[in-house]
Amino acid sequence: MKKFEISVLDLAPVKQNKTIHDTFNDSLDLARAVEKLDYKRFWLAEHHNMASIASSATSVLIGYIANGTQKIRVGSGGIMLPNHSSLVIAEQFGTLESLFPNRIDLGVGRAPGTDGLTAKALGRNPNNINQHFPQQIQELQRYFSVENSESLVRAIPGEGCDIPIYILGSSTDSAWLAAEMGLPYAFAGHFAPDMMETAFEIYRQNYEPSAEFPEPYIIACVNGIAAETDTEAQKLATTLYQAFVNLIRNDRKPYAKPVDDMDEIWNPMEKSHVQRMLRMSFIGGEETLVKDFKEFQNLFGVDEIMITSHIYEHDARVKSYEIIRNAVDRLNSSM
Fold this sequence. Notes:
This is Luciferase-like monooxygenase. By secondary structure, this protein is an alpha/beta fold. Helices cover about 45% and strands about 15% of the residues.
């Protein structure tokens, strides 16, 4: 088992009886807290038309978080590239990198981050996404290159910026693409764990080294909810469970407070579906997390675990990341 880094995926969660302004303040406070705890990076994810998630203008929010922190890397987990022109994203992230040198990551995915009707409003063409997504990544690489200075179309800011590109995915298609392009790979195990093991095998076995990334690099995104006791953590996790029940019911309302009994909310079919989707979740006190992270790392051997934490009370969410940091430090120091 090898040592691993830990990072944060923040969806800028909107909570019942809270404002979006509160959400952004909480995200910044969390970023400052995990920066002090030496988390490696803080990523934000692009979603649209969801009353529970406020990170739709992802590049703007990255700038807000980066401006309020000092050293932690800040980026996208991810930008849903087919929603945008490659040039606009190159300019946005070139601007961010120019403002916050050596701190900006660009994670890109091909999913819409929303429903079909909203995807259409974003201008996506579903007929050419699989072909166009790899092309867009190549366009980004070209816009960021110094050599593009001779082109008739240039990204300014952006040109000559050293902005690492990460390919995100929740299926094996993204694993093949990341391996072929010699780019780091982040898998969405926090909601789609079924293909994760196979995707990692494909990526490692077929990786083509690149100048920027001579070795494969894997980030596994998982759910993490920690508290002083397992019982307390399990109750905090009911906010996460309710959020996924709402997804199943196509009810995108803000996140709810924890409850004592989920069986009063979900039916047996919903419970089974939620448990399958959230299989890669680390929920418990510090001792439980040490054991669970060890088992996970023995199985997958990833370079980095990125943790998203759906907890209603902000202070409890910050505390959760503190406990996770302690658990990971204990595990890494034992290797």
